[in-house]
Each structure stands twice: as structure tokens, then as C-alpha cells.
Design a protein that fits this description.
Blueprint (H helix, E strand, L loop, with lengths): L11 H15 L4 E3 L1 H10 L2 H12 L3 E3 L6 H9 L5 H18 L5 E3 L4 H10 L5 H6 L3 E3 L5 H8 L28
Parallel strand pairs: 1-2, 3-4
Length: 182
Amino acid sequence: MRVAGGIEAQDPVPARSRDALRAILTICHRVCLSPELRAEWKRHQSRFARGWLTRMYARRKVIHCVPPPCDHILDDVRTLPQTTQADFEAIAKDIHLVAAALATPDAAVLSGDNRVAAAIRKVCTDTATATSRVVAHVLWINPVADHMTLHAWMLETGPAQPHWRLGTAPRVRRKSTRRGQQ
């Protein structure tokens, strides 16, 4: 959470990341930290994020989890023709986020990096893969792009958005066409 800015942050990316962390702290949510996720957090945390995690520990809202192995996801990525080397590298770099989500009841990842989600969605389009059966229900939520719906979902006043699920295709904005024209 290197992008989470302090109270002075005005830019949408750090401000919305900060707001998502604050909501997790104040609403009855917890964070699952696997050893790999904790190490990444230490390397990339902002000053605000470091204080946030300290407060999460103080409120006993940090759960240390041992996520399931996810080697099968990387195997699927390697074998499917529609995935690229860039897809494989993105997933290999952040597979620990999906693994940690699989160890939680909500199965949710909050990340501003949609490359991994897009790559996993490619794999999930083939419903015969182990990946599609295991991770299709995982939510990949961008706290910057989906800040309003994320907050409503965390307050339990709004539903999880269908496009958050890794097993569904992301939203595509289509150009409107006039009737009779192609």
C-alpha cells in the first residue's frame, strides 16, 4: 500500500487508497496477512499505511493466515494459448494476493493493479481449468476505480459488483451504434 496517502493527500489514487484502508479499520473488517504478503507490505508501505497496520494490530484485526498453494494457477497460465509471458509474469508476481484471499471468508483482494485480475480472467474463461474452479469466486476490487461501490459493499449496504469476480469478464464499454448501421 505504498500509494495510500496521508490526510493531506488530494490526488485520487492515494486519497482513495487511504479511504479504503480507513474503512477497513473502522468497519468490522479484518486483514489477512500471509508471510509473503507481510514481507511485501514491509517493503512497500507508506507512512500512513505503517500507522494503519499498527492500529489494525492494536484492534486485533490482523489475521495471520497460511494460504493454500496456488501452483496450479501458474501451470494453467503456462499451458493456455491465450495467455502471454506478460500475463504469466504478472500472476507470478502477485499470486500471493489471490492465495491470501482464498484463505478468507470474503475472498477479496483490494488492489489498484488490474493486470493480474485481467490475466487470471483470461484463464478463467476456460472453465475446464483448475484455476477457474478455484478462483472464479474471488473478488478483485480496485479501491481507486470502484471507491463508491467498495465503500457501500464494506458497509453492507451494497452488493459485490459482478465485474469484481475473477470468474467474470471485466466491464467493457462498447461504442453505441445506430440502428441499421454496422
